[in-house]
Each structure stands twice: as C-alpha cells, then as structure tokens.
C-alpha cells in the first residue's frame, strides 16, 4: 500500500524529466531516467497548462505536455520549456502579493486503447501558492490521478519545500527551469479480510498444541508444588499463632 | 439539479489553525467550567513533551494498577475541591494525565484495556516460548469486554429511553367496556400500537418494515380485534388489542389495495372484505381464512373504491368511472355470486372517498363541488334509480368560495346501518349537521365557526363533538346530540393553544355514559406538528405525546447556563473596569447576592428536610436549569422532520421547550449550528437553523436561544438565492457569535452576523478561508477561496465521471474534535506520527455498475483546501450502503461484500512517518509529502444502521465506535479492534505495543451493547458530545426511539466509583494518625525511661 507513494526526488538539470511509474494498480517500479522526453511515437500526451496572474483571474498558457508511453513499462515524461524573462518577473510579482500558481489538465482517459474516443470536456485544476513556487526554485511534484478505468479525475501539485518563508530569490537562473517530478496514480486495491492466513495459523497452532502433551496437563498436575507449599505454609502459620507479638513490642 | 451533496460537510475554514488541538492551542477556556478543566489543560500541555518521547511506556504500564489508584485519589481530591484554587493539585494531575497518556501514545490507546493487557502480556513474559494466550485473542477480549458492561443497579441511573410511534393515521378508542383505557393507533411509520389512554404510555407496539412494504393501508377495530391491511394489500393481519398478540396473518393475492370493511350479518361482525383493483375477497374475522374471492367485472375501466355493508349480510362494492358513471355490485355473502349489478350516471363524480359517504340504510350521499349540490342514491333498491339532486343553496346554506365541501358520516357498529345524521363541511370553519329523513335532507344545526367535527358513540347514544375557537389562544370542544343537534350541558372543554405550536388537525372522541346517564367524554387532539394531547372533561390535559420526535433529523447538545449566582460573578469579570470604588461596590454587592442565595439554599434544605422524601420534587424546569459540576447535563436541541424544534434536558429526557416552525416544507433539509455557546455571559447562547427547501433550494434562517427556545431578536439576512453550502467560521463578532457564511448558487457569500467588525475580520481572513462544494449529480468536487469583497474564486476541481462511480458520502472531521497524542509509540520506542489534517475529506463512491463482479466501493481522501488527492482506493466486489466515520487520522467504512455476501469493515489510518514535517502548525498548503496509508479489513457479523465515534473533551480517552445495529442495539466497539497495524504474525514489538493479533472476524460481544435491553428501533443517527469529564462521552441515539446515555471508553478514570468506601479510607487515615500519635508518645516515654536508667 505504502509503496505507491514512493516519490522520486532525484532532480535533473535543464529539461528536468523525471519519471516515476506507478501502474494503475499498486505495483511500483523504479524510475528510469531518459535523456529526452520528446519521443512520442508510441505514447500520447496530456497538455499541461499553467496560469499566474496578478489579478488572480486564471489565464492559462501552455506549460508543457505529460507524455505517457504505453506498453509493458508505463512511463511518464513531462516535456516543458523554460520560463521567459517576462514570466519570471510576473511570477515573482504574483508571489509578492501571495497570489496563486495554477495548473490544469483536460479531463480525458489515459488508457491508450481508448485514444480514439478521447474527447475532453472541461479541465481539472489545482493550485499552489506562487511564493512557494518561487522559493522552491520551481521544484514541484505533479501527480495525475486516475480512476479505475484510467480516466483522469484530478491533478495535484506540491512544491518541495512547500513553505513560504519570505526568502528572497535573487538568482534569475533559479527561476528559469522547472525541476518537476511527474507521476500518474491510479487507485490501489483495498485489502479484503485476510481469512486464509488466519485459518492457516490457527491450524498450525492446533497442531503445535497436539504435539506438545505437556500443555495438556491439568491444573493440579502443573501447580501441585505451589499448592502443597501453600498448604504447608498455612498450617505452619496457624500452629504458630499462640505467642502473640504485640506484648513483646510494648516492652 | 440534485444538490444532495451540497449540504454535507464542515468546510475547514481557516487553514493553518491547529484546530485538532495538536498543541492544546485551541482550548476553549470557558469561564466557570471549574478547576478540573484548567488543571487538565495544564497537565496536557506539560505532558506533551514526555509523551512523545519513547521509553516511558513500559514502566507506567507495568505499574498499571498502582497508577490507576493514584488516579482515583488525585481526581477525587480535585473534583471535590473544585471550588477552591487548584494549584496544589496540579502536580498530581500531571502525573495522572501522564499515566493516562502513556497507553494512548503507546498502544492503540485504550487505557481501559491497558491494565488487562498488561496482565496478559506479563503472563506471556512469565512463560516465554509458549504462545499461550496469544492464539486466543478472544479470551483476552472477553476479559476486556467486561469492562464496558453496566451493572444492574446502574440501569436507568444516567440513561433513558423514550419510545414513539410517529404521526397517527388511524386511532380508535376501545369502547367495548366502560373501564377500558386502550387506544389503538396505526401510524405513518408503519407501526401499530396501543396506548394507555390514562397515562399516554405504550402498552404494546409493533414496528413493521419501513417504507412502502410495511405501509399500513387501513386499520379497522372491532371489539378486541384490530384488523389491518399492510403493504398495499400484501398482508391482512389481525391483532389482539389487549396484549398485542397476532391473531392471524394472511397473504393476500396481488393487486393494489382499494378499500376494506367489516361485513356484519345478524348483528354480529363475522367477515372482513378487502377490495383490490380487480378482485374482492372475504375473510373470516375469527381466523382470517378466505371465504371466497371474486374478480370484479370491468376492472380495467371501473375504479372500485369502496365497500359497504349495512349489517344485513349484503356486500356492496362501489366503483366509479371518473366523469362518467357509478358502478354498484352486490355480492352474495355465502358464495360470492353477483346478485345485482347496475350503473348509475354520475358525470360529475371523480372519486368516491373524496365526495361520497353512505348514510342511513344504505343511501349514498355525494357532494358535487361544481354545481354545489348534494346527490342521494339508495344503493340497495331494485329500481334503476337516477341520483336525486338537492342544491345546497336550497337548504339555505352557502359554500365558502373556492372550498370543496366534505361529507362526514358515522357507522357506530358495522353490523348496523349508518346513522341518518351526517356533517357537511362548507368552509374551513363552517360545518352543518344534516339529517336524511325519508329521502329528504334537512339541516339540524349550523356550526360556525367550527374547525373540527367528529362523531362518537356510546351505547345507544351518538354525539357530535365540535371544536370551535374561543379566542386566539384557546378553543373549546363541546358535545351535541346527533339526533337533534341540541347542545349537551356541561360538556365544554377548553383547549389552550400555544402560539408556537401546531394547530389541531383531528379529533378522536371517546364518549361514555356517566352514572346519571349523561354523556362524559375524553378527547384526543392531533395537531399538525404531530403532537397528541388527551383532554379530560373539565379541560385538564391528561397527557400529551410529541410524536414529531419519532423523526429527528439533526441535533446538537448545548451546555446549560451557569446558575444566576455564578453568572453574577462571571459578569463581574466580563464588565469593563470603571474605577476602584465602583469595582469594590460591585464586588460587595455580588457577594451579598451570593450570601443571599446561600441562605435561601440553606432555608430550602431545612424546609425540605421536614417534608417526607417522596414529596420533595426534583423536577427540572426551565427556571432551575443550571450546569452541573461536570457538565454532564446538557440541553439537547432536536430538529424534527415536521419542522418542530425541541429542547430536551439530557439528564431526564424532559421536553423543556418546543417551537413549531409553521412554514417548513415537508421535504426541507435542516442544518443546525451553534453560533454562540453559553460561555459568553451575559450574551445569550444562540443557535441558527438553516431550513432549505429541497426543491427550490431557497433557505431561511431561524435564530433562537437553545436554552429557552425563544426566537432571537437578531434579524437574520433574507436569502433570495438558493443556498449551496453553509459554514461556521471560528471568527467571532464583538458579541462572541461565530460567523456563519452562506454560499449561494452564484458563489456569492452572505455573512451572518454581518456587522462592520465581522466584515473587517473576514477581509483579513479571506485569503485563508476556503470552502468546497460537492455536486454529486455531476461527480464534481470544487474548491473555492474567499476574496476580500466576499466573492469567491474557483481554485481546484476534481471530477469523478458519473458513468463509472457516483459520490454517496463526503465526510469531514468534526470541528470540536481534539486529538491529544500526535503519535503512537511503537515497539522499538520510535514514534509514528499521525497525519492529522483537519481539512481532510473522505469521499465515498459507489460504482454505477452493480454487477456483483464489477461493482466496487471507492474511497478518496481529498484535502479540502488544496484539492489534493491524498489517497485513492477501491474495494472490489463491494457495494453500499456505505457507512463512514472520519476522525483523527483514520477513516472507517462499512460495506457489503457481494462476493462473500457479508458485511465488512475497513479501516484506513494515515501516518506522517517517524518524523513530523512541521510540528508546530498544520497547513494544507505546506505538506509536500504524502502520508503513509495503512488499511485493513474485517468481517462484521451484522448489518449496521448508523455509525459514529465517541468524542471527549480533550481527546485523551481512547476512542470507540458506536455502531447502531438494525436489531436496535448500540454497539460500543473499541477502535483498538479497527487498527490496520494489527499484526498477522505476533512479534515481540507488536506485543510491546499492545496490538491485538489480527483476526479476520470482528467480534460482537453483548457486553458491548451500551443500551443493554433498551433497544432503539430504527436507529438513524447517533450523536456524541463531550462532557466536562474527560472520561465521559454523552451519547444520544435517535431513530424511532430516543436513547440517551453516557459511555466511558476508558472506564471512569477520573471519577470515584459510586460504591467507593469513604468510611474505610477515612477510618484507616484517622487510625494511622492516632497510631502515630500514640507510638510517638510511647517512644518519648521509652526514651525518657532509658535516659533515667
């Protein structure tokens, strides 16, 4: 269960393409880094848009595309460009007024066999505070969530670190390229009651009990010495009653 | 658009406030709550650090017994000295709280179990190697189970149950004997019951299936037989009215039910006739066997709607073809042969029950609202008669404009023909008593104004009871002779009408002959707010029942106010300082008042002491309401489906106030919010009820004082647009009322109260105020942020395609929940921190595909602020109904496993891991790492009706799940059993942690039924509220019945037991004291003697 949440935090340089694979049903493979995420011969891509405006009204522009490659190894790439000088300034200004950095993806199915009837109706949006985007030097983690059929139901974005401490980002280079980890996640299978293992264990224990006849001894057989000792002690104390201790103490 | 989902959930209002009491930062320091609370707060804060540190658990747990005793002593000492300064006790409390804490932090938190478990684990250590005891966890649990049982002498001490029957549809007084005191009722809730007409208590009650399957179509009472048709003509049942036993039950042929009636022959009633859409059947009254069944001719065109028998053995079925003609068929009672069949033109007739009655010897009287005329027709005569038309105007009567006249007749004995007298209702308050004499209708008496009329019969006498208004606040009921229309002397009863209660709707009169042969009577008045009131003749209310309480929709518990004297003292602190001298004077005056109150109290004690104990009344009234020492007594504010609000004292169950909201639609949804608690004297507490019409979505606010039920003078905003969501912010205005935000369908926000101060605060908090909306019809969850100008902006959106799954439930966390320990100490002494996100939402979905192989139940954990999907899981081969509880760091849900055909529980727990990301404050915006999610499932051997978790003041006490079962039992299931860390293979570390080994089946122990034999029928909801004692949680289960009790999930660790031996402990103390004195003296003497030697 927890394996799904493995997060690959390796950062790559310019076109930071980091992949993390989670097959829709819980198995988690290790990521494999590729140099170039733009080969889309077998997979297809989900456009990823972003928006950061001073007046907080969303005006989405293209940020990149998440490319999914079908086949035995489901791999996810994010190909995206750099922020322009203008964008960088806007982002910093938005961060200064505690504005939002929003992203959106279209609602669509990620199943490659359903490419034909892949029509989009509406978008899924998520946000992060622009200041945390700036302060984390554009290192973000984007996760696409799908339902059981592989249809996109949600997108989430977090930055690492996530806090806004008001740290000034002077270096323009820090805000040029995204350092993004992208992953696709489907629902995990919730466990059903584990009966088989329990029954097996019960049987083992019954067997063990059967093998060990010492366990079967009766109460008296096991503790006869304690009972006898107790009885002797009681008799001894009752016979030694007459000499009362109180008088001697008073002495 | 279905906005069903919109009502749900508390939106986590301000991000970043550690609302779950992580560091005790949000502890409400309510004044007057005593030293105990403050003491514990201090303790809690002090022990924060050690409890997180590993390595202490074992020592404390080992000495569990001793620690427990220390608890008893120190808490006792604090409790009793609650009036004094408690500083000296702080040390001891700290120690106790620490001791309490350890298992909570270390194990799954059940202190109650910890002692027992300690004993068992110790036993295991004594015999290492043998797994004795471990393979039989049930044995362990059995011991543990005893902890929760109630002792016999505790029954009814702090719990009560009230049983209801619901809105009455049919009511009959049992009249076969003079001394009879039974009342037979059938209700909308599919219940047949018998009430004691002297006290209003239930003699017996039978609860049938809810819904249309158990719907009672009709109830007929004759002698001691109550015959009813159930489930749209599915079953015919006969009950014995004395003891409520079932005489017989017959399964009827299919077909929708139309009418039923007794068939009398030769002055006795032997048969019951049941008319269905296309058939009539005759059954013996004695054993229910079918005598004959016959098809009705032309069943597809004629609507058969009535059956009539005049007592001469005729069975007459009446049908109507709307706007065309009337069909009359007479059957032979012996073999069901059609004796006569005829049709009479009646082009004005559309429905028989609405406009026709049978009076006299089989004469049908109908009223035509169009031409305003009466028609008469002899049913049994041979000649093919036309209907005889009589214009109402020709009788010198006028129909109120636009009013549809109604006829009321009476047939006192089914073996005899109806009486020739009948009522004609001509207007809302206008009735006329008419008589049919040889085919001629003549008026006997006009009643105007008169709202309600009814007939009653005793012996040979039949009387008419008429209710007419006296003034605005009262009505009078009088009897009139049915034969002549003469008023009977001394028969007036005055009924007082409260302004905020419902109007009378129906009268049921029980008439009887007095010794002097005059007629006496009792009358049962049914009001539109479902209340039943029985009046005796001089106008005395014998009893009243509030049947609206059979359908409680939502409730809250509100602290009672302080006593007047306490409030006076509090008020002194609340006022602004205005100089030294006035303050001194004020202090003196308030102390004078205190002295006065104390003297009055002493005087009362003295006065009461002289009276015999039985006469000393200890009734709770609205005047003497006051908070008790431990805040165990609260005001239950209940909102019922009928629109009536109740204030009920939680200790005794007495209804202290009621308020009927007149204009509530029957399909309205309610949301009750406590805007201001009692803690802000002199401001009165304030509750707000949002009433929302489900169809239009328009809402209204009713603001009231929850203690007295009075409508507040504060004028709420008028809501012109449909309300989508409401949320109560932790912000307060200058009068300490929490701010309520209402979001309309244009996503505009209305604040209440909306003073300048509030708006300013809102502007400041706007950027951290988020809310979410759920549209289950489109599967859309959306998040919004408040803007400074009170508009909103969409910030996130999650859409679940409705073709795959539909949202059935969205559960947030309760705003008043506190979590005390932030983590769990594991076996290796490291701490596993809980993921305590106050903004987390648990979204439960069900698949639209209901095939048993492909259906599933999905759970999504979504952060309500950022819209981030924290976890997504599907339970395959499962379907609803899903019940879900979300609290602390866990979600428990219950579903039906379609493959194994059983109910299963699943628990999800979220942990941050062994390190906290930011331990000081939680912010949804700054949690980059997803939590670890653990999940485990169990088989539960029963279906469930509802589920809730216990709640305590500071969250130190371990949690239990309260599960309402369809059997009416309320199961208190320790959360310890629902722990995904229960190991399948026992290791040393899991033993250290007190984890119960995994067993797939969840036990149901009868000792865990908190309501022992007090079953709660059709339990629909459970409400839990913390009390002033940390160990105690108040529980109210409601459904058809209401049951209130207290639960102690970790035993009463902070209270001395009832049977605590004060004498022994004090005699031992004094004995020891004197012994030391004496021995000291003796030792001195001895020393002196030795010195002299």
TrEMBL record, chain A:
The record describes its membrane topology as: Single-pass type I membrane protein
Q: Which residues cross the membrane?
A: 223-241
Q: Name one Pfam family in it.
A: ECM10
How is this protein annotated for GO cellular component? EMC complex
Primary localization? endoplasmic reticulum
Q: Does the keyword Amino-acid biosynthesis apply?
A: no
Q: Is the keyword Membrane assigned to this protein?
A: yes
Q: Which UniProt keywords apply?
A: Endoplasmic reticulum, Membrane, Signal, Transmembrane, Transmembrane helix
Subcellular location as annotated: Endoplasmic reticulum membrane
- Quaternary structure (record): Component of the ER membrane protein complex (EMC).
Similarity annotation: Belongs to the EMC10 family.
Q: Spell out the PANTHER family in the cross-references.
A: CHROMATIN COMPLEXES SUBUNIT BAP18-RELATED, ER MEMBRANE PROTEIN COMPLEX SUBUNIT 10
> Which protein, by its recorded name, is this?
ER membrane protein complex subunit 10
From what organism does this protein derive? Aldrovandia affinis
Could you read off the lineage of the organism from its UniProt record? Eukaryota, Metazoa, Chordata, Craniata, Vertebrata
Automatic annotation (TrEMBL), chain B:
Domain of life of the source: Eukaryota
Membrane topology category = Single-pass type I membrane protein
GO annotation, biological process: protein folding in endoplasmic reticulum
Enumerate the spans annotated as EMC1 first beta-propeller domain. Answer: 149-547
Cellular component terms per the entry's GO annotation: EMC complex
> Where found in the cell?
Endoplasmic reticulum membrane
InterPro entries assigned to the protein according to its UniProt record, in alphabetical order: Beta-prop_EMC1_1st (IPR058545), EMC1 (IPR026895), EMC1_C (IPR011678), Quinoprotein_ADH-like_sf (IPR011047), WD40/YVTN_repeat-like_dom_sf (IPR015943)
The entry's keywords:
Disulfide bond, Endoplasmic reticulum, Glycoprotein, Membrane, Signal, Transmembrane, Transmembrane helix
Q: Where is the ER membrane protein complex subunit 1 C-terminal domain?
A: 887-1092
Spans annotated as Disordered: 1-23
Q: How does it assemble?
A: Component of the ER membrane protein complex (EMC).
The family classification in the record reads: Belongs to the EMC1 family.
Q: What is this protein called in UniProt?
A: ER membrane protein complex subunit 1
Q: Origin organism of this chain?
A: Aldrovandia affinis
């Amino acid at each position: 269960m927890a394996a799904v949440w493995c997060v690959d935090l390796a950062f790559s340089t310019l076109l930071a393409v980091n992949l993390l694979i989670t097959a829709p049903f819980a198995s988690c493979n290790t990521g494999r880094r590729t140099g170039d995420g733009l080969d889309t011969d077998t997979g297809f891509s989900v456009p990823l848009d972003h928006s950061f405006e001073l007046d907080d009204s969303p005006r989405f522009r293209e940020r990149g595309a998440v490319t999914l490659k079908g086949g035995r190894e489901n791999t996810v790439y994010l190909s995206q460009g750099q922020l322009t000088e203008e964008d960088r300034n806007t982002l910093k200004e938005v961060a200064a007024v505690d504005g939002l950095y929003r992203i959106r993806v279209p609602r669509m199915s990620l199943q490659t066999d359903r490419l034909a009837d892949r029509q989009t109706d509406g978008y899924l949006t998520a946000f992060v505070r622009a200041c945390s985007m700036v302060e984390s030097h554009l290192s973000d983690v984007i996760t696409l969530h799908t339902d059981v059929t592989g249809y996109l139901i949600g997108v989430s974005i977090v930055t690492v670190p996530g806090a806004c401490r008001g740290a000034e980002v002077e270096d323009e280079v820090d805000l040029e390229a995204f350092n993004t980890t992208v992953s696709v996640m489907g629902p995990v299978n919730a466990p059903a009651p584990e009966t088989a293992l329990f029954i097996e264990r019960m049987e083992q224990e019954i067997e063990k009990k059967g093998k060990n006849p010492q366990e079967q001894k009766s109460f008296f057989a096991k503790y006869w010495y304690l009972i006898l000792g107790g009885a002797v002690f009681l008799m001894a104390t009752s016979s030694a009653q007459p000499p009362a201790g109180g008088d001697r103490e008073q002495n | 658009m279905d906005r069903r989902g919109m009502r749900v959930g508390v939106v986590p209002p301000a991000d970043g406030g550690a609302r779950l009491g992580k560091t005790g930062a949000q502890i409400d320091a309510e004044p007057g709550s005593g030293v105990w609370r403050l003491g514990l707060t201090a303790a809690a804060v002090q022990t924060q650090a050690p409890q997180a540190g590993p390595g202490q658990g074992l020592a404390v747990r080992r000495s569990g017994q001793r620690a427990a005793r220390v608890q008893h002593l120190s808490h006792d000492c604090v409790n009793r000295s609650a009036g004094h300064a408690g500083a000296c006790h702080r040390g001891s409390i700290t120690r106790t709280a620490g001791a309490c804490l350890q298992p909570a932090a270390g194990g799954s938190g059940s202190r109650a179990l910890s002692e027992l478990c300690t004993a068992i684990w110790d036993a295991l250590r004594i015999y290492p190697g043998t797994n004795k005891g471990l393979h039989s966890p049930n044995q362990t649990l059995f011991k543990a189970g005893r902890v929760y049982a109630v002792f016999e002498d505790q029954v009814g001490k702090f719990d009560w149950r009230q049983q209801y029957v619901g809105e009455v549809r049919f009511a009959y007084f049992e009249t076969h004997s003079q001394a009879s005191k039974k009342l037979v009722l059938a209700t909308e809730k599919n219940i047949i019951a018998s009430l004691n007409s002297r006290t209003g208590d239930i003699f017996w009650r039978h609860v049938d299936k809810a819904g249309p399957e158990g719907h009672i179509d009709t109830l007929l009472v004759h002698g001691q037989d109550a015959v009813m048709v159930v489930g749209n003509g599915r079953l015919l049942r006969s009950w014995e009215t004395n003891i409520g036993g079932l005489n017989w039950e017959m399964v009827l042929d299919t077909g929708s039910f139309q009418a039923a009636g007794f068939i009398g022959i030769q002055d006795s009633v032997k048969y019951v006739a049941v008319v269905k859409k296309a058939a009539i059947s005759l059954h013996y009254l004695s054993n229910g066997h079918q005598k004959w069944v016959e098809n009705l001719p032309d069943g597809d065109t004629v609507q058969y709607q009535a059956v009539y028998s005049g007592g001469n053995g005729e069975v007459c079925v009446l049908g109507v073809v709307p706007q065309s003609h009337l069909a009359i068929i007479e059957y032979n009672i012996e073999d069901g042969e059609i004796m006569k069949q005829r049709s009479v033109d009646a082009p004005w007739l559309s429905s028989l029950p609405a406009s026709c009655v049978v009076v006299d010897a089989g004469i049908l009287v109908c009223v035509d609202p169009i031409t305003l005329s009466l028609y008469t027709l002899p049913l049994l005569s041979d000649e093919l008669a036309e209907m005889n038309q009589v214009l109402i105007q020709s009788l010198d009567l006028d129909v109120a404009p636009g009013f549809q006249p109604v006829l009321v007749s009476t047939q006192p004995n089914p073996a005899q023909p109806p009486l020739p007298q009948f009522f004609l209702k001509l207007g809302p308050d206008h009735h006329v008593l008419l008589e049919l004499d040889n085919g001629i209708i003549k008026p006997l008496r006009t009643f105007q104004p008169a709202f309600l009329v009814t007939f009653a019969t005793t012996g040979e006498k039949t009387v008419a009871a008429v209710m007419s208004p006296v003034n605005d606040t009262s009505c009078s009921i009088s009897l009139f002779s049915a034969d002549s229309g003469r008023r009977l002397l001394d028969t007036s009863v005055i009924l007082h009408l409260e302004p905020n209660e419902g109007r009378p709707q129906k009268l049921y009169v029980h008439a009887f002959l007095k010794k002097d042969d005059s007629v006496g009577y009792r009358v049962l008045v049914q009001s539109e707010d479902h209340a039943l009131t029985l009046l005796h003749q001089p106008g005395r209310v014998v009893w009243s029942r509030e049947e609206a309480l059979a359908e409680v929709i939502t409730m809250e518990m509100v602290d009672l106010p302080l006593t007047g004297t306490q409030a006076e003292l509090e008020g002194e602190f609340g006022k602004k300082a205005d100089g030294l001298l006035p303050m001194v004077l004020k202090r003196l005056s308030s102390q004078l008042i205190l002295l006065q109150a104390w003297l009055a109290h002493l005087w009362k004690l003295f006065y009461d002491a002289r009276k015999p104990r039985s006469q000393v009344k200890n009734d709770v009234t609205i005047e003497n309401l006051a908070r008790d020492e431990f805040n165990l007594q609260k005001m239950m504010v209940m909102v019922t489906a009928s629109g009536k609000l109740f204030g009920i004292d939680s200790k005794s169950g007495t209804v202290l106030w009621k308020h009927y909201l007149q204009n509530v639609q029957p399909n309205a949804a309610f949301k009750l919010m406590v805007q201001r608690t009692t803690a802000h004297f002199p401001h009165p507490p304030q509750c707000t009820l949002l009433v929302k019409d489900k169809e239009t979505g328009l809402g209204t606010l009713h603001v009231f004082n929850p203690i007295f039920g009075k409508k507040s003078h504060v004028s709420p905003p008028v809501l012109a647009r449909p309300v989508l969501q409401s949320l109560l912010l932790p912000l307060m205005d200058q009068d300490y009322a929490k701010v309520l935000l209402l979001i309309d369908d244009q996503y505009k926000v209305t604040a209440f109260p909306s003073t300048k101060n509030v708006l300013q605060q809102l502007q400041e908090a706007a950027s951290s105020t988020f809310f979410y909306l759920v549209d289950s019809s489109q599967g859309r969850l959306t998040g919004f942020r408040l803007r400074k100008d009170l508009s909103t902006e969409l910030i996130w959106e999650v859409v679940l395609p409705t073709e795959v799954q539909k949202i059935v439930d969205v559960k947030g966390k309760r705003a008043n929940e506190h979590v005390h320990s932030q983590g769990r100490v594991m076996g290796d002494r490291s701490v596993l921190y809980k993921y305590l996100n106050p903004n987390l939402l648990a979204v439960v979905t069900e698949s639209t595909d209901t095939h048993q192989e492909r259906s599933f139940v999905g759970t999504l954990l979504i952060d309500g602020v950022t819209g981030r999907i924290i976890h997504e899981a599907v339970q395959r081969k499962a379907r609803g109904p899903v019940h879900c509880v979300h609290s602390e760091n866990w979600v428990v849900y219950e579903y039906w496993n379609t493959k194994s055909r059983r109910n299963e529980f699943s628990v999800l727990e979220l942990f941050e891991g062994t390190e906290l990301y930011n331990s000081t404050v939680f912010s949804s915006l700054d949690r980059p790492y997803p939590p670890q999610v653990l999940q485990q499932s169990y088989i539960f051997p029963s279906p469930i009706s509802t589920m809730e978790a216990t709640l305590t003041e500071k969250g130190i006490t371990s949690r239990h799940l309260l599960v309402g079962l369809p059997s009416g039992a309320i199961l208190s299931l320790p959360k310890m059993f629902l722990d995904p860390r229960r190991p399948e293979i026992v290791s040393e570390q899991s033993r250290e942690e007190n984890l119960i080994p995994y067993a797939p089946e969840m036990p149901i122990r009868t000792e865990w039924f908190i309501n022992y034999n007090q079953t709660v029928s059709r339990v629909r909801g459970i409400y839990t509220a913390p009390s002033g004692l940390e160990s105690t949680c108040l529980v109210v289960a409601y459904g058809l019945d209401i049951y209130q009790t207290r639960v102690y999930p970790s035993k009463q660790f902070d209270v001395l037991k009832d049977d605590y031996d004060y004498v022994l402990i004090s005699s031992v103390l004094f004995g020891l004291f004197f012994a030391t004195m004496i021995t000291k003296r003796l030792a001195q003497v001895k020393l002196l003697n030795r010195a002299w030697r």
